[in-house]
């Protein structure tokens, strides 16, 4: 049987908690791989974590059981980015102006230990390498040996994410990051050129990359969800924000609580805001001072959670890729109010399958409309669910992944 080397920096040690977007996408690709090839997995892990041989074997068994596939697991620590303080900090970041491999987030994967880890895995003669995100492409770009075909999943376009981050900051330090973008885009170009296939989350991202880099082999593999049982409209005007501990999610939760929620309560004082996921624990506000707010933390039973809410809010200001939380809510028949960035790349039509609003008052008014009008909320939610079944059903996306991998395997023979 053929063999695929799967490389990632996202080690899912706890399957109960590691269920947000990145790990959902990982699971989808693994389900696409496991029926057509054996899987070797190389995870780059934090350098301050120690894994004994027994622990690695335990994880290997847990992965094989969870994914119902024979997994061979390998771990390699990432390198440390020495930031320093004062002038030395500027020097640390400044070295990345001319060299993509010296930038924070990439230098940790660009040293001899990471290259050696891949070289060792190549001794097992994989037919294809699957690389999850740009950071793990760094050692592949630096390796001197010949490589099998590479399937590169670029679900976030890094320079787009960084550019949006800079635009939402006013500090001199953040503006300095503009100087890193030319080297970063050069690194992206090299990675895209090295890969036989590069997958992105949306057609808009695919067209953007083709137009910018003029390279072939870029395909769309959307984020996806399993289609659950349709939930009825909730009896109470409960609004949900759900998000893992990720800066754009944390900032969106704070924006929702401080800028939007007071405007909602002005018109609908009986409304309730529910914040689920680890993002809620990172709020930099006094929760006790916010009326009608419930911070739930991690929620295991999503069926019950979505059953209790009438609509969801996604006021994301920074990020890339597409938001699985919007697809997930739509699959349950729940409508969403989102910013333009939050809804980017998704094929939901504004005002009929999603409500896209960027101004805080307009965002609040859209939420009030959904929370106060159950018939309107149901109609938008049902339309969004139909679109999700058509475009984002996980079973169909797995078929697309398999076909792309089979084409790659056949071309390598």
Describe the structure in your own words.
The longest helix is centred in the middle third of the chain and has 21 residues, at 247-267. The chain is built from 16 helices and 13 strands. With 413 residues, it is an alpha/beta fold. A 7-stranded parallel sheet has the order 3-2-1-4-5-6-7, sandwiched between helices. The chain has a 6-stranded parallel sheet with strand order 10-9-8-11-12-13, with helices on both faces. The protein folds into 2 domains: 3-224 and 394-412, Rossmann fold (3-Layer(aba) Sandwich), CATH 3.40.50; 238-391, Glycogen Phosphorylase B (Rossmann fold, 3-Layer(aba) Sandwich). Helix 6 (158-167) packs antiparallel against helix 8 and helix 10 (247-267) crosses helix 14.
Estimate the helix proportion, in percent. Answer: 40-55%
Q: Mean pLDDT score, rounded?
A: 92
How do the SSEs run, as a string of H and E?
EHEHEHHEHEHHHEHEEHEEHEHEHEHHH
User: If you consult CATH, what is the topology of the largest domain?
Assistant: Rossmann fold
- Secondary-structure-based class equals alpha/beta
Radius of gyration: 22 Å
Give descriptors for this structure.
alpha/beta; Rossmann fold; six-stranded parallel beta sheet; 413 residues; 2 domains; 15% strand; globular; seven-stranded parallel beta sheet; 44% helix
């Amino acid at each position: 049987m053929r063999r695929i080397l799967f490389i990632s920096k996202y080690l899912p040690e706890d399957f109960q908690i590691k269920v947000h977007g990145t790990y959902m996408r990982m699971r989808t690709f693994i389900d696409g791989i496991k029926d057509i090839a054996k899987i070797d997995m190389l995870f780059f892990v934090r350098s301050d974590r120690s894994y004994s041989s027994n622990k690695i074997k335990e994880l290997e068994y847990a992965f094989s059981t969870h994914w119902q596939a024979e997994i061979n697991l390998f771990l390699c620590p990432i390198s440390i980015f020495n930031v320093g303080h004062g002038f030395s900090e500027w020097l640390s970041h400044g070295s990345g102006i001319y060299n993509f491999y010296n930038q924070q987030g990439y230098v940790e994967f660009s040293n001899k230990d990471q290259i050696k880890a891949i070289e060792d895995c190549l001794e097992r003669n994989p037919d294809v390498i699957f690389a999850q995100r740009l950071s793990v492409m760094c050692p592949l770009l630096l390796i001197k040996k010949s490589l099998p075909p590479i399937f590169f999943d670029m679900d976030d376009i890094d320079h787009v994410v960084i550019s949006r981050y800079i635009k939402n900051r006013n500090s001199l330090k953040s503006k300095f990051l503009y100087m890193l973008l030319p080297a970063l885009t050069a690194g992206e170009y090299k990675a895209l050129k090295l890969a036989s296939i590069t997958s992105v989350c949306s057609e808009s991202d695919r067209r953007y990359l083709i137009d910018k880099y003029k390279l072939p082999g870029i395909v769309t593999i959307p984020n996806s969800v399993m289609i659950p049982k349709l939930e009825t409209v909730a009896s109470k005007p409960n609004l949900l924000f759900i998000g893992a501990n990720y800066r754009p999610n944390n900032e969106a939760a704070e924006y929702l609580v401080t800028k939007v929620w007071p405007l909602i309560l002005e018109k609908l004082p009986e409304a309730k805001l529910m914040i689920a996921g680890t993002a809620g624990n990172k709020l930099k506000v006094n929760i006790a001072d916010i009326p009608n707010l419930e911070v739930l933390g991690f929620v295991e039973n999503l069926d019950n959670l979505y059953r209790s809410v009438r609509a969801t809010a996604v006021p994301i200001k920074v990020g890339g890729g597409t938001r699985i939380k919007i697809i997930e809510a739509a699959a349950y028949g729940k409508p969403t109010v989102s910013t333009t960035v939050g809804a980017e790349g998704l094929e939901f039509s504004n005002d009929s399958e999603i409500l896209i609003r960027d101004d805080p008052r307009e965002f609040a008014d859209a939420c009030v409309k959904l929370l106060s009008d159950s018939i309107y909320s149901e109609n938008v939610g049902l339309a969004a669910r139909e679109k999700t079944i058509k475009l984002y059903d996980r079973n169909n996306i797995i078929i697309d992944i398999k076909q792309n991998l089979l084409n790659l395997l056949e071309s390598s023979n």
